[in-house]
Each structure stands twice: as C-alpha cells, then as structure tokens.
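pls design
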C-alpha cells in the first residue's frame, strides 16, 4: 500500500469501523471504498461479504445484528436506488444500519447515467427515515463516521455518511 492509501480519510473509514467493533462489512466493489475494503479483507476479525446487489446487504446486516454482531454496508450512490424498498426492513424491525455511501453524479461527473441517482441519494435516504451526514473534506470523515456509528448502534437507527465526490476526487473516463 502506498503512503496515500495508508494515511488519510480512506484509512480513517476502516479505523473508525474497527473502533466501533464492526465484524461484518457488506459491499459491492467500489473504487471509492477500495482502501477500507482491502484493509477489511486482510483483517481476520472482520467478515467481508461481496454482494450481488446492494439491497442484499441490508438483510445480511439485520442477520448479523440478530447474531450479536455489528456490521456496515459500503456502497455507491447508484446502489442506494437498489436499496430503497429494502430499507423498509430497517424501519419495521428497528435494527442498527450503518451505511457509507461514495457519491457519484454530484460534482464533476463524467458519466451522465450517474447524475439522476446521485442527485436523489440524500433525499431518498431521508424519505426512508435514514439520518444522513455529508463529508466533502478529509477532516470531516472520521468524526462523521464515528457519529453515525454511535447513533446507529446506540439507537437502533439507520444512518448514512455520504462521501462526496469532491472528497473522493474527480473520476476520469479511461478506455
């Protein structure tokens, strides 16, 4: 791992999840979460579960909580659209749900197909009762992830931290 990957907000995500006792990380592969995912994969205390589609993670994390363990769903804003109906499970069962969402379609997006869901992500989550916070600066990531994890696991709440595209960096079209 180079110095950029071992330091800064990308590793802060994993560090804060570990501090909160996260034992399960459910995800669909995403470059924005790549550092946290590599660290989770290498950690024998964490079960990293690759999903077929993001909404599977909500049921998986409900099961982890019923089994006495904490988990987090790492996804991209486009995957939030896949989760909207399944968020009803959290509303009805009131289990903690922590989501970390890398944003697309919200700043300097090259792929127009990302724009509709990127623009609707925060409002969609809020309409489903998910508390949201947005990080656009590296120094905001650790405190926001900590706060969201605290509120999710102490209050059986659905919480999401949106990792803005300005934080992640401008995506480039490559062939």
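designed seq:
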């Amino acid at each position: 791992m180079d110095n950029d990957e071992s330091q800064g907000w990308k590793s802060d995500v994993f560090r804060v999840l570990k501090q909160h006792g996260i034992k399960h990380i459910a995800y669909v592969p995403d470059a924005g979460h790549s550092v946290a995912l590599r660290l989770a994969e290498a950690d024998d205390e964490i079960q990293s579960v690759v999903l077929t589609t993001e909404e599977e993670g909500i049921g998986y994390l409900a099961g982890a909580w019923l089994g006495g363990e904490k988990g987090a769903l790492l996804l991209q804003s486009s995957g939030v659209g896949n989760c909207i109906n399944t968020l009803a499970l959290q509303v009805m069962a009131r289990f903690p749900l922590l989501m970390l969402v890398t944003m697309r379609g919200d700043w300097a997006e090259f792929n127009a197909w990302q724009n509709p869901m990127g623009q609707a992500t925060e409002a969609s989550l809020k309409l489903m009762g998910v508390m949201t916070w947005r990080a656009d600066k590296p120094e905001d990531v650790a405190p926001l992830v900590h706060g969201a994890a605290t509120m999710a696991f102490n209050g059986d709440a659905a919480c999401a931290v949106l990792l803005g595209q300005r934080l992640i960096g401008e995506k480039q079209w490559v062939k």
